[in-house]
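Incident review: delayed structure delivery

Summary: a single-chain prediction request sat in the queue longer than the usual turnaround. Root cause was a stuck worker, restarted by the on-call engineer. No data loss occurred. The affected request and its eventual output are reproduced below so the record is complete for anyone auditing the incident later.

Affected input:
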Amino acid sequence: MQTFNLSDYLLQYLDKTSATPRNRQLYRLLRQAILDRVLPADTRLPSSRDLASELLISRNTVLYAYEQLLAEGYVEARTGSGTFVANTVPDAIYLPVESAVRKKSGASKAQLSQRGHRLVAQAAAAPRQWGAFVPGVPDVTQFPHRVWNSLQSKIWRKPAISVLTYGQGGGHQGLREAVAEYLKVSRSVACEADQVVITNGIHQSIDLCLRLLSDPGDVAWVEDPCYWGARNLLAASGVRLRPVRVDAEGICPDAADLAEVPRFIFVTPSHQYPLGMVMSLARRRSLLEYARQHGCWIIEDDYDSEFRYGGRPLASLQGMDSAERVLYMGTFSKTMFPGLRLGYLVLPAILSQSFVTGMEELHRSGQASLQATMAEFMTQGHFNSHIRRMRLLYGARLEILQQEITRHFELSQVCAVGSDAGLHLTLRLPAQCDDRQIAREALAQGIAVRPLSSYYQDASHTESGLVLGYACVEEARIAPAFALLAAVIRLHL
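Output delivered after worker restart:
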């Protein structure tokens, strides 16, 4: 038996001034009443003629609503008896809209796994990805888009089947070959094309390594400080992180670190991130020998080695590895543009086929046309030309920023480190400075910097400082932007 007056209920919410047709309004109101159990299962609905008369609307309007509810399973027609609310409502398992809104925040937390909680709690991606002084972002306005568009249009004029169908696990063959050739010449990487797997960037490369080579509870050494993205990926995978200090020669494990053999050693030897030191030859040889003796995997992140302003780029750690324990990874995000989302992973020959298969199973390679365009961009010489041009541009911007630092501060107050390569420098501050607070105050002035302390995992040896990107800041903007930042810093010295 109906426990309330349906006509009064519907008249209360039908809006004659609404742009939504009245038949749709009526359908939605009846559906919501069923979902909210205002109209329980087995409730008999008024005949279409009676309801139309009570609502002062046409019978066709009611018939539309009833027919739509019937088609979706909310009601059922019983011969000789009328239309009834169905016993099994398709959407009954969902919360009503109002309840869903009220419970949204609590439900989202309750549904996360422990791993999900850790990942979200440690998230560090910045909302701003452009301007002074966002670290690690290239000047995308200088990218030769006309050249790129010409190459891409040529591929799309008559695309090969391989460009349109599912990609192979290792990526576009032409790009694998181009990457292998480039790395041999520029980074002294020892590899062939079939050892190269094309990925969507450093994050996917790390994730692939972890999925195929790690088990929950495995230990990973990470430089301390280190890139937050790598640290969070490792932690979210179930690997136990062991932060290892760095000194002037790079990662520097002590006796306590050596007591438990790690499964992985994550390093940035050519330009430590974020401090900028280069791993010494002695430290490289020692690390490689340790990995050989204990069967560790070294993950070498060579993230921005192309941009070195004090001489030729340094050779890779992988090129010195005779025991095949190094997994080398790089990205086109810094040399091309971040939105490209292309990276590469160079594997020991013994692992290459397994990783190609794993990539195919986990991620289903795609973007073949994009990869084909990138291959043409490299083989025709545009890539090397672009790097040479950007190296000069970034070098000039770095020099301006260094001059501004010297102009605003004495050497006894701040110290710029890691400024001979890459797209950023790190400004070390006195220990009493709260770099997180400085970063917040600078952001209020429109200046985005990252606090150095946020890159550390071991709080016992955290340093204060700011990581400043200069690549995506026009020359004329560097001085006034740094003046604003310097004013904020002086308040904390």
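Verification: The radius of gyration is 30 Å.
Action items: add queue-age alerting; document worker restart procedure.
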